[in-house]
Structures are given as structure tokens and as C-alpha cells.
Amino acid sequence: EIVMTQSPATLYVSPGESATLFCRASQTISSNLAWYQHKPGQSPRLVIYGASTRATDIPARFSGSGSGTEFTLTISSLQPEDFALYYCQQYNNRPQTFGQGTRLDLK
Amino acid sequence: QVQLVQSGAEVKKPGSSVKVSCKTSGDTFRKYAISWVRQAPGHRLEWMGGIIPLLGIANSAQNFQGRVTITADDSTTTVHMDLSSLGSEDTAVYYCARDRGGSYPGPLDVWGQGSQVTVSS
After folding, report:
1. What angle (nearest 5°) sits at the alpha carbon of residue B26, between those of residues B21 and B32?
2. CA-to-CA distance for A17 and A26, rounded, in angstroms?
3. Which of A5, A18, B42, B84 is in Cβ range 3.0-4.6 Å of B17 for a Cys bridge?
4. Do A49 and B46 touch (CB under 8 A)?
5. d(CA B34, nearest CA chain A) in Å
């Protein structure tokens, strides 16, 4: 199965700053990559799919890029509600696999 | 607004089985696949398997083959996930999610609220 590796494990940022999260696939997955936001006590929320397409109702400050094996999620001008855990997921092959997550925390 | 509504929390004995249900809308049932994803404490999200409800075609991750059964009931537009031979490692929150991929894997764009399953003697 494809192994997804995210970095860093935790990213400390202040509101208003930008954050860049990284995700690497163990083999090429084209652009079949999604990002999810996960807050405690809530269900994961789709943020980006197709590596760069924002999901419904996701603000424009979220952007995704990459293809093949290297991907990034950038959140510009961080808002208080953006502090959460973020997972990447590949859906190029079954089983779909997730990264271990990056926690976005207040500096 | 599209919703997936899951059944409630369960406490099970080791070696037993659990059935988690996911109520969908008719539109979701007819047009999309449903995947099951779980998250054990301290672990990443893990895809377990999925089904195309309209066709009744299910598949599961190799890690769960032989233990997980995913079915769809068109009379109630509900998808069920049965997991057998439970062990403590199956203690987790189980989610159903709408899979935009259909026959192929896809992004999961609508999630149920999650069902806590606790396995304890």
C-alpha cells in the first residue's frame, strides 16, 4: 500500500501568519490527493481534493499544490478556526491511505 | 444539506462483533459510494472498506478482509458495517463517509458524526 508521510508533525504559527504543510507519497499518485481538517470532537472535513481544488465552502486562503509524490497545503492569513489537525489522503490506489497528520498550533 | 447519520456508541466484549449503521439520503445512496474509516487512539485515519450502494458491490482493505462486511439496505437507504472477532485494537471511532470516487477511490466529501466502539472485557 502507498505510505503517506506528512511534515512537520506540529507547526506553531500565529493568527494572521501563513502556514505550509507537506505531504509525500511513497509512490506516484498523480493528483489524487486530498487534505482534511480535523478538530477534536468533530468529523474530518474535506478541504482540498485533486491536489488543488477547494472543496465546497472552503475559504480561498486554503490552497493546495503538487503532483506525483510531493504535495503542499498552504493556509494564508490564519484565522483562529484554522487551528486543527490536517491529514492528507491518497486515493490513487486502494486502499486509500492517510498521512499521520500535522497539528497546526498557536505560537 | 447532505448528512450521514450514524448509529450510537457501542461497548463490546473481545471476540464479539459490532454493527455500525450509516443512514444516507436517497440521492447519496443512488449516486455515490460510501466508505468506512476508523481512527484508533493515537493512530492515523484508516480506510476499512466501502460499497457502491446502488450496485451492492463492496470491497475492503486487506487488513480487514475476512472480518469486515459492508452491506447496503435500499429500503432504508442505510449502509451497515459489521466487524467481527473484535480485539482491544479495534477500539476506535468509526466514520462513514461519502466517497466521490464511485467505482474508483475518491475524496471523502461528507462524513458521518462518528460512532465510538469500545472493546473491553
Report:
1. 80
2. 30
3. B84
4. no
5. 13
pLDDT tens digit string along B26-38?
899 999 999 999 9
* Cell, residue A69: 509524490
pLDDT score for B104: 85
Are A87 and B112 an interchain contact pair (Cβ–Cβ within 8 Å)? no
Please provide the size of chain B in residues. Answer: 121
Contacts of B101 in chain A (CB under 8 A): 91
A87 contact residues in B (CB cutoff 8 A)? 44-45
DSSP three-state, residue B34: strand
- Given a contact cutoff of 8 angstroms between Cβ atoms, the answer to whether A1 and B105 are in contact is no
pLDDT digits (tens, 9 = 90+) for B13-71: 999 999 999 999 889 999 999 999 999 999 999 999 999 999 999 999 999 878 999 99
Among B37, B53, B33, B54, which residue's Cα sits nearest to residue B45?
B37
How many CA atoms, within 13 angstroms, populate the side-chain half-sphere of residue A42? 13
CA B93 to chain centre: 10
